Amino acid sequence: MKTALVTGAAGGIGFACVKMLCEAGFRVYGMDVQDEARVKERYDTCSEARYIRADLTDDASRRATVDRVIREEGHLDVLLNAAGVAPTVRTDILEMTEESYDRVMNINTKSMMFITQYAANQMIQNETVDGIRGYIVNISSMSAYTSSVSRGEYCISKAGVSMITTLFADRLAEYGIMVNEIRPGIIATPMTSGVKGKYDALIDGGLLPVARWGQPEDIAAAVLALVSGAFRYTTGQSIDVDGGFHIRRL
Fold this sequence. Notes:
Elements: E1 3-7, H1 12-23, E2 27-32, H2 36-43, E3 49-53, H3 59-73, E4 78-81, H4 98-123, E5 134-139, H5 152-172, E6 177-184, H6 196-204, H7 216-227, E7 238-241
């Protein structure tokens, strides 16, 4: 059985990926900081899912989580980096605080970088199957290339995720580890619930060719495709799952 580790797996996009990977036959470990009691009911619906409460921002915690997966399963085949936060308060970039910048960058970019580094070094030890030793998928955002001056730290953090994807794709290709990125658009999650009215109006006004909110399952389906074995010659790719937001239209 193939094994996956998903960060940010308590809810939203992360848990949707946990659920879909389990349904596809993966053993999935979900990592998040929330108490187990808060996710128990959700995880009880996935017989092949295991929840690990761990702090992604702590190096020892990151390493211990990866080590546990390998100790219990013997290998790690997929790392899905889905953890991410928005600024606690949306603030004009002229007023952004260092504290907010550091918090968002630490979780969204720095921590993702170093769990990927550690997991990649373990994946290198995997046996090669059909030329592949493993898959790494990073959940970025349309904010990686779209300016939102009221949450600049988020945009910067996601642009960093894009470059991390490129760097690891380049470095790990020789080992048969494929590294790709998914850029979600406007997705209905707790992160976007506070600005629902704003996005409802934009969607109704024609912002998206596919005129609806995205769902976490839309992202999970793209993740599953990338780690299914169907894309053994694809690495360093950014895939927009955004209802066509990225299309430049006149």
